[in-house]
Design a protein that fits this description.
By secondary structure, the protein is of the alpha/beta class. The chain has 2 domains: 154 residues, Rossmann fold (3-Layer(aba) Sandwich); 122 residues, CBS-domain, CATH 3.10.580. Helices cover 43% and strands 17% of the residues. The strands form 3 sheets. The chain has a 5-stranded parallel beta sheet with strand order 2-1-3-4-5, sandwiched between helices. Strands 6-7-8-9 form a 4-stranded mixed beta sheet. Helix 4 links the parallel strand 3 and strand 4. The longest helix is centred in the middle third of the chain and has 21 residues. It is elongated and about 90 Å long. 32% of the residues are buried.
């Protein structure tokens, strides 16, 4: 099918890009099922599109087509009766017609403003009857159109997220750290002069398994985890009268509030940690929140 990406394909892309309307995909039977997928893909990546069943179109649904729309009509034979019956109306309504068929000599091919050849040598079906190779070729051509349109429109991952707010894909691209972080009194923080028995109380009461340590200028300078406490006790250290500054780890990992939650998860996995302190920006010294691994996993980002 790569050989079919030719001048006709280029013309079809240009027509769709120049159109002030929508892409209307139509087809019967297996071609219709492939058309539904093509329309759905286009709509999800920046090209407004919907599927119109040609039989329903004959009985009134042609009112869904407007002047300036582009109709992609799909028929392997190019002679599907229900599809051919709506072609004159499409022209009368002032819509452009892109035909996709396995028969370059068909009525559909001759009637189209642009014809895209999706013919195959033979079907994968051993009887040579069931649409198999032909539907795959048609789907490949439709996906090629959709992806080129995406690139030409400058469609980005952030745009994709707007159309996919549900499911793991949307959450990875849409949810930000500030949507999941704990702020205000929920942030576990102690000063570097806090005695360790009080540090232990903060770690337990905030239920994050960690506390940040701030210096005299109120800036985050370290971090103490429940794991740090456990390891110190296992070594026989008398830690409870020590200060937080004596136990803390320096240079804790941080993330900005506007970053994607998926980026926070990546940092946690890379450094084998379960929480990150959140800051308003690179210049901020005191954290505005904390995000925990459990918050990210509960949100369905994995």
């Amino acid at each position: 099918m790569a050989e079919r990406i030719n001048n006709s394909f280029d013309q079809a892309v240009r027509i769709i890009l120049a159109s002030p309307g929508r892409v209307v995909v139509s087809g019967m039977g297996k071609s219709g099922l492939i058309g539904q997928k093509i329309a759905s893909t286009m709509a999800s990546i920046g090209t407004p599109a919907f599927f119109l069943h040609p039989a329903e179109g004959i009985h009134g649904d042609l009112g869904m087509i407007m002047k300036g729309d582009v109709v992609i009509a799909i028929s392997n034979s190019g002679e599907t009766e229900e599809l051919l019956r709506i072609l004159p109306v499409i022209k009368r309504l002032g819509a452009h017609l892109i035909g996709m068929s396995g028969n370059p000599s068909s009525t559909l091919a001759r009637s189209s403003d642009v014809f895209l050849d999706v013919s195959v040598k033979e079907e994968a079906c051993p009887l040579g009857l069931a649409p198999t190779s032909s539907t795959t070729a048609t789907l490949a051509m439709g996906d090629a159109l959709a992806v080129v349109l995406l690139a030409q429109r400058g469609f980005k991952a952030e745009d994709f997220a707007v159309f996919h707010p549900g499911g793991s894909l949307g959450k990875k691209l849409f949810l930000r750290v500030e949507d999941l972080m704990h702020g205000g009194d929920e942030i576990p923080l102690v000063s570097d002069q806090t005695v360790m028995k009080d540090v232990l109380f903060v770690i337990s009461s905030k239920r994050m398994g960690v506390t940040g340590v701030t210096g005299a200028d109120d800036a985050l300078c370290g971090v103490i985890t429940d794991g740090d406490l456990r390891r110190a006790l296992e070594k026989g250290y008398d830690i409870f009268e020590r200060r937080a500054s004596e136990i803390m780890k320096l240079n804790p990992r941080r993330i900005k509030r506007h970053e994607l939650a998926a980026a926070a998860l990546q940092i946690m996995e890379q450094h084998a940690i379960t929480s990150l302190f959140v800051f308003d920006d690179d210049q901020s010294r005191r954290p505005c929140g904390i995000v925990h691994l459990h918050d990210i996993l509960r949100a369905g980002i994995a």
